[in-house]
Amino acid sequence: MRIATWNVNSVKARLSNVLDWLRSAEPDVAVLQEIKCETEAFPRFEFEALGYRLLVHGQKSYNGVALISKHPIEDPMTGLEGDDGDAQARYVEGTVKGVRVCGLYLPNGNPAGTEKYDYKLAWMDRLHRRAGTLLAAGRPFVMGGDFNVIPEERDAADPHAWVGDALFLLETRRRYRALTHLGLTDSWRALNPTATGYSFWDYQGQAWQADNGIRIDHLLASPELADRLETCVIDREPRGRDKASDHTPVVATVSE
DNA sequence: ATGGCTATCACGGATAGA
Q1: Is residue A199 within 8 Å of A217, Cβ to Cβ?
Q2: Residue A200: CB less than 7 A from any atom in strand B
Q3: Total tally of structural domains belonging to chain A
Q4: Is A176 tagged catalytic?
Q5: What's A56's domain CATH number?
């Protein structure tokens, strides 16, 4: 079973690129971030034509996430618990073939020292609580998405450029580490322990051409799922295309 | 580098991203 995450940066602007990739990579399940459209405006037909079922949680203009699956999606859920006043569409959850798949778009948080950063940290605390709840259930799950967290210096081509940034601040990384300390496994890092790999390259400054990237898109596997991990790769191909998203997909394979 | 690209909304330029 192939599980993917991809921040597409607008599902409408990226439609042909996303569909092309789905046809070639054939993930069983994928979580998409920054669809940037309302739920009703998601290009449902085009995805269904490729055999995908959809769980969409959108909003106008910004954010928006989706879970797409070749298999039935059971117990669908949208929104991350813990703040009834949070109107931003950043979280979706559903069970596919016995695996609880969580798709998330973690707040960017810049600039640090503002309410935006406070929102990011609070959101991470809520995610931590959700992970604890799922761990207590004892069933396999994966939290995948754009975490907007550079876990370590080696996850940035130019780590000094990120000092003071909300993606790399100690408080941010500490909270990410709290998730792994709960027992979640960073799938790509676990299977590529000494490799360098990035999942995002800025549109500016020739970042892609210079491979000046950061690794911020992650698939965190629960212990039950980590035992089944076979491969995890960052697929750089879509990033090199015309009209590319600034993120590229991360794909894990788990035994059934 | 004072984020020098991109998408959205809405039709100019602000807002957000990372």
Answers
A1: yes
A2: yes
A3: 1
A4: no
A5: 3.60.10.10
Q: Is the pTM of this model over 0.85?
A: yes
CA distance A226 to A191: 10
Nucleic acid strand B within 7 Å of A202 CB: yes
Per this entry, what is the length of chain A? 256
What is the H or E stretch that residue A121 is in? helix A115-137
Q: Please list the pLDDT of chain A residue by residue as tens digits (256 residues).
A: 999 999 999 999 999 999 999 999 999 999 999 999 999 999 999 999 999 999 999 999 999 999 999 999 999 999 999 999 999 999 999 999 999 999 999 999 999 999 999 999 999 999 999 999 999 999 999 999 999 999 999 999 999 999 999 999 999 999 999 999 999 999 999 999 999 999 999 999 999 999 999 999 999 999 999 999 999 999 999 999 999 999 999 999 999 9
Place of tokens 């491979």: A211
Chain A residues 66-105 within 7 Å (CB) of strand B:
none
Per-residue CB contacts under 7 A with strand B, chain A residues 106-135: 107-108, 110-111, 116
| A68 contacts: CB under 8 Å, gap ≥ 6 | A22, A29, A30, A31, A32, A47, A52, A53, A54, A55
The integer distance in angstroms from the CA atom of A39 to the C1' atom of B10 is 20
Query: How confident is the model over A163-201, as pLDDT tens digits?
Result: 999 999 999 999 999 999 999 999 999 999 999 999 999
Domain that holds residue A66: 2-254
Active site residue A117: no
Q: Is A146 a catalytic residue?
A: yes
